[in-house]
Amino acid sequence: MSKKQKIIFWSVVPAIIVLLIVGIILTNGLYEREASIQETMQDAILHEGDRISLFGLPVNPGLISAYLVTGAILLFAAIVRIFVIPKFKRIPGKFQLVLEQAVGFFDGMARSNSPHRNNTLGAYIFAAGVYIFFGTLFELVGIPWQTANGTSVTLPAPLSDINGAIALGCLSYAFILVGGIRANKGRGLLGTLKEFSLPISMSFRLFGALLSGMLVTELVYYYLALSFVLPVVVGVLFTLLHALVQAYVLAMLTALIYGEVTEPHVKKQRVRTRKKKTKSPTEVKI
User: Fold this and answer.
1) Mean pLDDT, to the nearest integer, of 185-191?
2) Is the model more confident about 89 or about 268?
3) How far lies 203's CA from each of 42, 153, 173, 262, in Å?
4) Which residue, of 40, 62, 176, 262, is most buried by count of CB atoms within 10 Å of its CB?
5) Residue burial 215-252, b: 16+ Cβ < 10 Å; e: rest
């Protein structure tokens, strides 16, 4: 950095900080809180006051988010399959390279953790990872929606709703259960049923991680002094970090346990040895 650039930097940054402080002081009296911080946090978890009417039924905003994310992913997948994949070349372009790297990453994870049965496993953990990643990033879009009470609400990430997290955790457990039964019949069933806490741990891990990011963002927005510039940094960093980590964690856990329950059982063969009966010297005929 040159001397001129340093002068500009140290003159602009303090000016921006001073302007932010002045803006906080001048607008502090104009800001009215509709609810306490406890009520704001509780409503972000339970969604009691922001239910959305879906065909006459009150549902959580996370369900609408899940439908939108699923529809967008399916539409994008159909476009890629019909118009892009047939034009793939031996020397890949940028988009082809990114797509092949993503598919190869999850396929390699499936092969390394489940070497015996990994065809459907690679496809499942790829789909689950993509849904978690883009579903988590969905909250950055900030799509407004009208609630049943006539107020406006921003659609959250689908997995920040406990029902969405439980659904994905149970779906992963069901996939492992079916794979274990197909591979080892009753032994695979018992091996999967022993992991009875797996859907609970998967569900609450997803829900807790994504909810913590959302609550931190709500906390930052609640206080006016923190609502300048900081929410952009906090929201993007928390959301991106959770999207990457949770997609990797669920895919790895599913692949590991699937590989354990589908491992072929080798029967131990019993080797029978016949002992030759030897006669004692007294039994020997003279």
Assistant:
1) 81
2) 89
3) 19, 25, 10, 23
4) 176
5) bebebbeeeeeeeeeebeebbeebbeebbeebbbbbbe
Amino acid in the structure at residue 219: L
Structure tokens at 108: 């390699």
What percent of the chain shows pLDDT beyond 70?
A: 67
pLDDT-derived band at 107 (thresholds 50, 70, 90) equals: very high
User: Residue 277 pLDDT > 90, yes or no?
Assistant: no
Taking the domains of the chain in order of start, what are their residue ranges? 47-263
Segment 53-67 shows an average pLDDT of 89
- Long-range pairs of 187-194 with CB within 8 A, sequence gap ≥ 24: 187/265, 188/261, 188/262, 191/260, 191/261, 192/257, 192/261
Distances in whole angstroms, Cα of residue 28 to Cα of each of 21, 25, 243: 11, 5, 34
Q: Estimate to the nearest angstrom the gap between the alpha carbon of 127 and the chain centroid.
A: 11
